[in-house]
C-alpha cells in the first residue's frame, strides 16, 4: 500500500501530464481533507452566479463520466465532479474505508470544506446510493437530488449485475488481476462500455479512446484492484443493512426534490427498481429513457440535461410557492 505522500505525488503527476479525458473548458484540482485527498473536475460556468452542482460517479468510474453532461449544463449550474477516494485521480483514503458510508463521508467533507452547499447533487449507480445517504444525513447540503440508475437493493439482481457483484467476494480481484494481466486495456474498456450502454453503437471513438487511456493509466496504480474490490464489497454490505440504515429507509428520509432517471435498456438495473424508487422518495419525478443503458448521462447527455432543466424549473417554482409538490410522472 503506497503512503499518502506517494499517492498524492502520483495523482498530481497524472494531473500535470493531463489526466485522460480532461476536455477543453475543464480543470482538475486537488483538495486535502482529513484522511483523504480528493481530485475534483470543474467545468467553467458559461454565465455568472449559477447555483452549484456536484456530480458523483459510479463503481469503477470517475469524474470523467460526467464531462458530456457538465458541458450541456454549463449555462444552468456551476459544475464540479468528484473522483471518489481510490478512483480517477484521487488517491486511496488513509483509513482504507471504501464503504458507502466512507464515500458518503468524503462527499460531505468536500461540501463542508468548500462551503458550496446547498448544491444540486447528482449521482449515478454507486454515486446514486452515496448521494441518497448524503441527502438523508445532511439535508442542509442538498438543494435538489438527481439520481441516474441509482444502486439501490433489488430483490432479484439482473444477470448482468452478477459478474460486477462478484468483485466484492474476497480473493476474486486477486484472481482477476492475474487472469487479465495480458489483456489489453482496449478490450476491457470496450467490455465495460458495452455493458453500460443501452446501444453499444452509440459509443463514440472519442469516448472509447478516453476510456481506454484512463483504464490503462489506472491499472498501473498499485491500489487499482483493491479500491475496486473493497468498494464493491462496501456496496454489497450496504445492500444488507436493515432498519434505519437501509438504503430504502434512507431514501424515505430525503427531503430534497428528487429526479429519478432510468434507462429502459439497463443491463444492470431492473425497471422494477425505478417504480420502487418513485414510491420511496417522498417528492420525486420519474423519467425513463427507453433507449438508454446504465449511464444515460454519457449515452444521452442532451436528453438528460433537458430532463434536469425541466425538473429544476419545477422545483424552483414549487419552492417559490413555499412548498414542494409531488412531481411524479
Q: If you had to describe this structure to a student in words, what would you say it looks like?
A:
With 329 residues, this protein is an alpha/beta fold. The chain has one domain: Rossmann fold, CATH 3.40.50.1820. The chain is built from 13 helices and eight strands. The protein has an eight-stranded mixed β-sheet, sandwiched between helices. A hairpin with a 2-residue loop joins β1 and β2 (36-43). The termini are far apart.
What is the secondary structure topology, with strand pairs?
Layout: H1 4-17, E1 26-33, E2 36-43, E3 52-56, H2 67-72, E4 78-83, H3 100-114, E5 119-124, H4 126-137, E6 142-148, H5 162-165, H6 172-179, H7 185-196, H8 205-219, H9 224-240, H10 247-253, E7 258-263, H11 271-280, E8 284-289, H12 296-299, H13 301-320
Parallel strand pairs: 3-4, 3-5, 5-6, 6-7, 7-8
Antiparallel strand pairs: 1-2, 2-4
Helix pairs in contact: 3-4, 4-10, 6-9, 7-8
